[in-house]
Structure formats: C-alpha cells, structure tokens
Amino acid sequence: MPRPPTAKEQSKVLAETVVTSMVDRVREEALKKGSLTVDDIDAMKGEFDKQAPALTETFEQSFEDYVKARERADWDQKRDYPFDRIIVKRFSPLFNETDMSRFDRVSRRMLPGFFMALSMMLGPEEVDEYQEKARMIVGRLREDLGDSFDWEDVYADRDGRMLALDALVGIAVQFEDFERRSEWIVDLINGHLTSATDSDRADAGWEMGPAAVKNFLGALLADLRRALDSKSGKTRIIKRHGADVIRTINSVFRQIDA
Known about the structure:
Elements: H1 7-33, H2 38-73, H3 82-88, H4 111-122, H5 124-145, H6 151-156, H7 158-172, H8 178-190, H9 210-220, H10 222-228, H11 231-241, H12 243-257
C-alpha cells in the first residue's frame, strides 16, 4: 500500500485554517481601531485561548477520521468495510482509464478523501449502520455460496443493490448546491490523496478537478439515475425518501450533465 502522507503534510490544511482565522481577527480589529495596543493583543489572546479546547478536539477528530479513511482505502480491509467496497464499485471502472491526458480522469489516489467525504455527507453513525447491513449481506452470501463466493455476488445481490441505492440518494441530495459542494469535495479529496511517491508515475501528479468530479459523480450515481428512469424504481425512492428528493436529484443530474 502506498506510504501515507506525513503528519506535516496532513497538518498543513488545518494549520493554515487556524493561522488564517487568527490573522483575519487581528486584521479586523486593526481596521476597526486604526491601530493595536498591547491590551488589544492581550484581549485577543484571551479569545484564542478560549478556542483552544475546541481546536484541539477538531485536530484530534481530523486525524482520527484520516487514519480511518486510510484504513478503508486499503482493500486488504475489505472484509471490515464491505459497504465501502459496494459504493466504490460504482465508480472503480474509472480507475482503468488508460488515456492519461484526459482532464476528467479519476485516480484511486482519491479514496481516502472520498471516504472522509462519505462519512461527512451521510454521517458517521449512518455509515456504521450501512457497514453492518453490508456485513450481514456478505455473511449470508458466504454461508449460502461457500467456496464459490465472489464479491460480484455481493454487487449483484438485490439487498446489496437496494442498500447502495439508499446511500446514493443520501449522497446525491448533498449536491443540491452543486458548485459549492463540488468545490468542497475536490478540496477534501486533494487534501488527502495517497502518496505521490509510491504511486504509478502517471498518477503521481494527479489531482481532482472540475471535469473529474463530474465524471466521478456521474459514475457514482449512475445506478440512481437508472432507478429514476424506471417507474418502479422512482416509486420506491419516493416511498422511502419523499417526492421532494426526486426534484433535488434531477437538478443534480442536470448540473452533472451541463
């Protein structure tokens, strides 16, 4: 497995966020008063000190999330995270693209950031529930099929497909504000790429961009699009998620296709 980025690399985004926040606060105070006194600086230090516990918790949670995402990106962990495998199956064929000049090319270097985004969009508890349901599906199929079990059986299983479809609805509605959410997921993925050092030469300089994110989302949500194109699929989604969701998802598809 590629070497994970160093602590320095992973801290960069968080550190820049904190520094920017502090500088903005100092600038705001200076613009308001025209100058800063020692007392003003001491007062702002008190404000920053009060934020320290929350910042500490944010840093700790960020690193915990990153470590978990890196574990999930390792396919050796596939038995522990079967839901991830079911979801990634939707867009993993994009990893086989051989034309490295394509602006919409997608690389498996995106996986740690994608898993972090997945947890944020669906919620950690809901992802855990999906993982447990997926484990039950895998367990049932292993028991039924024995040595002939294959992951393709999981992907083809009706319960597995319905599980994925519910998750895809939850993902799709997050892109109602398409431009803002696309920028967010691009930044998150590019901030948590697997190491360029140990990647294939063609992938070493890869980053997610606007064309790639549309290509990725189109593949990820393709099963949902097909479900909405059928009367029975659309009826099922309305029954489980409501009619308003259909309008939102159709809007998202229009923006992906634009």
